[in-house]
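My hope is that you will study the record closing this message with an eye to the fold:
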Amino acid sequence: MALCRSRQGGHRTAVDVWELFCESLALDPTLATCPDPIPALQLFAHRYRSGEIAPGGAKVRGKTVGDAVRAVGQAFASMGLPDPRLTATGQLDLHLSRQLSSYNKHDCPPTRVKPIPLSILHHAIRCARNLNTPFHHALADMIILGFFFLLCPGEYADKTNPESSPFWVRDVHLFRNGTCMTPQHLLAGHLPTFVALEFTTQKNGVKGELIGLGPSGDPTFCPVHAVRNRLQALIQNQAPIMTPIYTYHAHRQAFHVTSANLTSALRVAIQVVGLPIGLTPFDISIRSLRSSGAMALLCANVDTDRIRLLGRWRSNEMLRYLHVQAVPVVAPIASTMLRNGHFTLLPNQPLPAP
């Protein structure tokens, strides 16, 4: 019996690699004739870790190995077979668990993109606006939306990833003084006072939920103005309601702002004004905008629950986007500790002897 195959983006999946691995050892991929599957899984994990059988051909991180082994186990379970990773009590086998744990311990710290201070974002937006083309106006708008709405890259920039879920024209809602606006209102020159994005296909949001923002108070760096600009440009070019909001039109043709476009614009801004702040172009990418918005909220002492709600984080994964290197976050800590370090302890009350 062969295991199910699954391909994503033209690359072999862990199940594909497992089948080839078993073939090289003359093993049945279902391990039906193998009295103890753990040694085979351990050897698979070892070769995957070293890069010998990993799709990229290079050494991979412990988490990647764990994900590959898990995918194999889940493939067994999807066929109604026992998951070979697990003991009779449903726990991960001790030997396999220790092996995967050892990989994680020996991994180098993960490379995280850094958040981008507002001065750099302002510079990138100002440069884009000055170039005054449909592409550059769209580029500036998408930087603003990525920052304020804490968006994932695939939601506001064109990516080759087939799982990207952009916001469409139909997902944009405009309000003026509490009243929903129509496209006709927008084309007539009425300005919104509140904007919202509706989650329809985005994986990190509750379907049908709207996340909205009001004006920032800055005429050039404002989510309300950016959403209005995007929607107005798309309506004027008669874009269908299923058009991604990162679309722009030039010479009567539709084009997309890509993640590479945004990363390039941000890195150019870093080269001009980022070095005195402690950033280099290699420190950031398009993913920095989500981190930048979260850090701005943290530096403003917005509680983490509200940050998590806006960013649609359902776990402490949010902490990966926050950096303690931000001076406004850590500078007041020492004085705060001195102000609040005075306390008394309640004495333990011994129980009376029986």
